[in-house]
Task: structure prediction
Amino acid sequence: MLKGKTILITGGGSGIGEAFAKILSQDNKIIICGRNEEKLKRVAALSDQISYYVADISTPVDIDTLFKRIANDKVVLDVLFNNAGVVEKFEVLESKLSSAQIFEKINTNLSGGIAITQQFINQAYKSVPALIINITAGIAIFPVPVLALYSTSKAGLSVFTRTLRQQLKSTNFKVIEVFPPHVETAMPKEIGNTAKGAKAYDFARKTIEAINKGKIEYTPGFNVVLLKLFSRFLPKTGLNLIDKVTRKQWQG
Ligand SMILES: NC(=O)c1ccc[n+]([C@@H]2O[C@H](COP(=O)([O-])OP(=O)(O)OC[C@H]3O[C@@H](n4cnc5c(N)ncnc54)[C@H](OP(=O)(O)O)[C@@H]3O)[C@@H](O)[C@H]2O)c1
Result:
């Protein structure tokens, strides 16, 4: 399924997105985007099948410009990985984030992904099978209070994924949701989570295998099972427990 395609990976300059780009460039044409050109250049140098555009997906103008440039370059995308994301601790009683910073974070994880999906659908050949792969998180199933913005935006992206799948059910678009477990990238370190996790390359390889097998939801790792159980049977106690454990684990 992921062979001979033209694939856009947002946030392809590092972490999980970089691993997707590297593996998929063996059989596909890859376009990555992100804010930091140095990171994108480094990944693009790994294969002549990888090219990049600098674009900040929290900004509507950058998204519109990205798709204009893709169209001007006579490229039609048939796979989209909504992968770019940001995480941060957010405590309403202590937060010094400005309204603009709050918008930027939610836009990156949610509004940006939705706007990119719309542009992707508009430009795709409707007669050719196309894939939209949204990278959400276990946190979309059950929130972590100290990651209030991240939990809120990932839950939003997860709901969008399901509504999109229903709207597109009679079309050639297939909508896939991936809930990564803890993967060792820069992201968990941002919040002080230095525990051992999956390697980005292994996770990306298994995700691609799952997509190629036709899965529409990929939920590796025990954490998602646990979060689903909390959500169903222990909504209040589970929230207190998760709050306590994460605050203890991610001190500093
Ligand atoms: N790692 C985990 O344990 C884990 C667990 C669950 C879910 N996830 C999800 O997996 C995805 C990939 O995360 P990761 O672990 O690979 O994190 P990462 O290494 O921090 O990569 C995130 C990527 O997103 C890009 N990005 C951030 N803000 C952007 C913006 N406004 N516009 C364009 N690109 C932007 C960054 O590039 P620039 O800085 O150059 O913009 C970076 O390449 C995220 O959606 C994350 O929520 C990760």
Q: What stands out?
A: The first helix runs from residue 15 to 24.
